[in-house]
Amino acid sequence: MNDLAPLLTPEGRALLDEVRDTDPAHELAVATRLRRDHPAELVSAALGQARLRQRAVAKFGTEDAARMFFTPNGVEQSTRRSVAAYRAERLRATGVRSVADLCCGIGGDAIALARAGIRVLAVDRDSQTAAAARANADALGLADLIEVREADVTEVDTSAYDAVFVDPARRSSKRGRIFDPEAYSPPLSWAVRAALTAPRAAALKIAPGIPHEAVPAEAEAEWISDGGDVKEAVLWFGTAPGTIRATLLPGPRTLVSRGLPDPEVRPVGRYLYEPDGAVIRSHLVAEAAEPLDGGLIDPTIAYITADTLTPTPYATAYEITDRLPFNVKKLKTLLREREVGVLTVKKRGSAVEPEELRRKALPKPHGTASVTVFLTRVAGAPTMLLGHPAR
């Protein structure tokens, strides 16, 4: 059942409360029982919504997810709450007090903007998605700040709003993930034109894999990670054109480009630093390496090496204990001798799959010791670096 309306009735809301914590393994029994007193379609819709809410906890938190309404695509494609809140705060800090949220989805960004005290016009052309956004604004007590409109975003007049936020669709039911920015819906070129006409500021959410040469000269480009996972890139207009930055959440901690040349390649030292994904995507490895007095282990690999341990929020440090040419048998022998029971495999610049190596090198635990293996290249040669998180 695609229509959210029955779930918004008193019967639907009561049913949602009743099935909220249903274990998926017990769904059939729960559905059979509830269908004695409720329409079968309503029971199915409530159980489906309960599953979506459970999935949404990772992005929206337990409290919000339990009250919101989702579509399958909405859960998959919506912005994580921490990222949306950070972006909303950046807009608020520029003096923005009203935003046209184009391609609003289920309203995750509109919610963050409203909670920052910003008035929002949330637009989506899909009726079901717009209905979910409207229901979410009401459920979270933000309906006074969020107006939801079902419309084609390319036909909406945004001149009355301080800023625009555009989150183009980057997935297709036929082709899956879309990598060409001009194949976004709407295309990136349209979104840029909309951004350039905004009175005060604009933000365009894009895929983190966007080529740097595709970033417009008028934009600031920011790559954002949350808990070490790269979540998105944002093109900002009306802020600092030409600036490139990596922002790490929670924090936030931000690294800004200074145009540094690539670090020199040097022999592997005592410590290996794995830069955060946002640092790598934003091409700011040199900026992360400079305060570490670090170099690269290979000109094409984003691993930083140094002889001293220097605290940094922009990379995770490991103490290296061994350097071996790639050889599974030697690794297996070494792990057995050291009674390793936990093996973490990371790779960069290697075709070997971590799970495959883990299965071959440690078919069964030999003890309680832990080891991290980096499959990489050192000066062009396939290499295994062994170590553990630095303390």
Task: Describe the structure concisely for a colleague.
With 391 residues, this protein is of the alpha/beta class. 31% of the residues lie in helices and 27% in strands. The longest helix has 26 residues, at 40-65.
Overview of the molecule:
With 391 residues, this protein is an alpha/beta fold. It contains 12 helices and 18 strands. The protein has helices at 10-19, 27-34, 40-65, 72-77, 81-93, 108-115, 127-139, 188-196, 277-281, 285-289, 328-337, 354-361, and strands at 98-102, 119-124, 146-150, 163-166, 171-172, 176-177, 201-206, 220-226, 229-237, 244-249, 253-256, 271-275, 295-296, 304-306, 315-325, 340-347, 369-378, 381-389. A 9-stranded mixed β-sheet has the order 3-2-1-4-7-9-8-10-11, with helices on both faces. Helix 6 (108-115) links the parallel strand 1 (98-102) and strand 2. Helix 1 packs across helix 3 (40-65) and helix 5 (81-93) packs across helix 6 (108-115). The protein is globular. The model has no long low-confidence stretch (mean pLDDT 94).
Structural class comes to: alpha/beta
Query: Averaging pLDDT over every residue, what do you get?
Result: 94
* Subunit arrangement of the protein: single chain
Categorize the overall geometry: globular
Q: Helical residue percent?
A: 25-40%
What is the element string, with H for helices and E for strands? Answer: HHHHHEHEHEEEEHEEEEEEHHEEEHEHEE
Largest sheet: 9 strands, mixed
Radius of gyration based on Cα positions: 25 Å
- Strands of the widest sheet, in order across it, are 3-2-1-4-7-9-8-10-11
The count of strands amounts to: 18
